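pinned: reference chain
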Amino acid sequence: MLVRQTIVPVMTNRLIIGDTPLLPLRNASQSLPCTLYAKAEMYNPSGSIKDRLANSLIDAAERDGRLSPHGVVIEVTSGNTGIAVAWVCACRGYKSIIVMSDKNSREKQDMMKAFGAELILTPHTAKPDDPSSNYKTAERLATQIPRSFYLDQYNNPANIDCHYCTTGPEIWEQTEGQIDCFIAGAGTGGTISGVGRFLKERNPAIEIVAVDSEGSIFTSYFETGKLGVAEHYEIEGIGSDKLVGAMDFNVVDRFLPISDKEAFLTAREMARTEGIFCGGSSGAVLAATRKVVRERQDIKCPVMILADSGNRYLSKIYNDSWMKEMGYLD
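pinned: its structure tokens
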């Protein structure tokens, strides 16, 4: 006998995005002055927080008439947005073309292709203004392909709006307004900016901590106001080699850079001790959260974002041979 259930048509995929669980990290909180809470965004349909973004960007493009039926969606990604865009496009009948650096994992590439995306890889050594960079490649394609639209998550206001309207309110409700510190990775800037803006409007005393990659330009720019030179880093999904429009530095209280090694080892630890299978950026966020609560003994309800699942990093951070080759494991 069938029990009553909600049947969601595929075309209304927006109904199954969000409302992700807030999990207490019991083992990670040991020896700390408070319990750490993690919003598990890998529970979104395509496996990451970027489902919120892709759905919002495509909704906005449809609403504004910039994306027509059977159109072509173009996007630059470090992986998760590309997967989410490919999934939404598969649901709605659009073709997707994803431009991505060749440093990102094979699993991400395969997931995009599984949803029907055309994938274009660019050299990770290319600077932002280089014609072969992912940014310039996407811009060029958008001028050459008829009925195409470049989402441009890095500079699209809908990136911030989707987290202001969904992720922020969910966290506020789940903590009953008790949250006093929010920690998330800064990549496109949308999550930290949108959630941070929402929370600051409810309680200006909430500390907003942006987690960065060592080698990214964000931290030095936030602290000095000057643009530095980006260096290579392996963490996918956080950090940047240029300033982007979706990063609102005004809502952030602090940037905290984390090394590749610390991020990856912490992610592996979380899988073993919490049973939470997450990516390297989530490892960086947990490492940063621990540092913050050790320094700030007055924090009682810190909430962090775990952006994606570890299933897209099996060939990298969950592969002992790769970790040893990169010098992250002895």
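why pinned: The chain has two domains: 10-43+167-323, 50-150. The two ends are 55 Å apart (CA to CA).
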